[in-house]
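quick one, 73 residues, struct below
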Amino acid sequence: MSVFDASSIIQAWDNYPITQFPSFWEWMEEQARYGEISIAKVALDEVSHMEPDCKSWLSNGGATIIVANNEIV
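---
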């Protein structure tokens, strides 16, 4: 499983727009459906402040959202 931080997904969102690179984002969505893409809740919150559309894509695309707990920390 790949765990994205806010800066890496924002970088991809800014540099590889869905309209110009649809196959990349389709592949990413497929990986999310297979449970291969995840993001920490705190990073998702940061993404939502910087790129609300990206946050929506992550949430709707099936990315696993990891909530920090004592076991993870």
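The chain has four helices and three strands.
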